[in-house]
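Workshop exercise sheet. Pairs work together: one partner reads the sequence aloud, the other fills in the structure field after running the prediction. Swap roles for the next sheet.
Pair: D.N. / O.F.
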Amino acid sequence: QVQLVESGGGLVQAGGSLRLSCAASGSAFSIYDMGWYRQAPGKQREFVASIGSDGTTNYADSVKGRVTISRDNAKNTVSLQMNSLKPEDTADYYCSANRPFRRTVWGQGTRVTVSS
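Structure field:
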């Protein structure tokens, strides 16, 4: 079982950048598909980006071209580099770990606030 802890959130002006990190502990990080999701006030949690155990990446249309997901299996971390931030990016950001036939594991979240 893997445990996830996010960090790197904060307050940033529109157009600025943040790098979120997710540190994993426990078993078999390298075989998990990893993702970032976000939840804005009053909205459902939505997909942001994912990176598979094979390194394949996927992005939501709303963030394509502005964010990059990466993983470092040696350090058991996954990161989300976010550039050109918009007020609409304001949300709590959650790291996830998933593998077939297993319950998705979530971190506690880190808050991103983008001011206009």
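Discussion prompt: The CA atoms of residues 48 and 61 lie 9 Å apart. What would you look at next?
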